[in-house]
Specification:
The complex is a heterodimer of chains A (about 120) and B (about 110). Chain A is mainly beta and about 120 residues long. In chain A, about 0% of the residues lie in helices and about 50% in strands. The radius of gyration of chain A is 13 Å and the shape is globular. Chain B is globular and about 45 Å long.
Amino acid sequence: EVQLVESGGGLVQPGGSLRLSCAASGFTFSSYWMSWVRQAPGKGLEWVANIKQDGSEKYYVDSVKGRFTISRDNAKNSLYLQMNSLRAEDTAVYYCARPRYSSGSDAFDIWGQGTMVTVSS
Amino acid sequence: SYVLTQPPSVSVAPGKTARITCGGNNIGSKSVHWYQQKPGQAPVLVIYYDSDRPSGIPERFSGSNSGNTATLTISRVEAGDEADYYCQVWDSSSDHPNVVFGGGTKLTVL
C-alpha cells in the first residue's frame, strides 16, 4: 500500500524549532519530487515547500524562506521539514504529499494524515 | 503571484447538481486539479488535469476549464459529498513553479 506517515508535530514556543518527518512506503520514494502542504485551523491549504528527487532543488513559499528547510533521505525513504524561528502563524496541520508522476508539476495523489504544529507560549 | 478565487460556500439539495468554480487569470491555459477534504481528514484528489478522474472517484465528479474559470461539477449529489473542495494549479510565472491553491469551497448538502 502506498503510504505517507508524518510525525514530529507538537507544541512549541514562538521562536522555537521543530523537525517534522514523513515516512514513505509502497512506492519508489527516490523517484518523486515531494512537497509539504499546511493548513491552519479553519483555513485553506497552503503549499510550503518541495524538493527534487536527489535533493538538488528546493523551493519554498515566501513566508517560510530562511526559516524552514526541506530535506530528504532516500535511503530511509523519508522526507523532513526543519522549522526554525517559529511564529504563531505557522500553527497548522502539516501534510507531506506526493505528485502523481515523478515530474513534480502534477496533482498530488498521495497525502499523509498530517501532523499538528502549535506555536504558542 | 497567481491567485485562484473560489466561492466560500455552495449549497445543493440531494440528487441535484453542484457546480464549484475556480477563477484565475487565463486559468484555461493551466491544468487544474481538484481536491475533496472532509473534516479531520487529508485532502483527496478527485479531478486532475481539468477533467480526469482518479480510479475510485465516482463518475458523478467531472471538471472543465476554459477562459478565466474552471468548474468542478458534482452530479446527483449525495450526503457523503458534503466537504470542502479546493482547486490547485502550478504557476510558472516566477523563477520556479509554485503550487497555488484556491481558498476552498464548503459544499453543503441540504
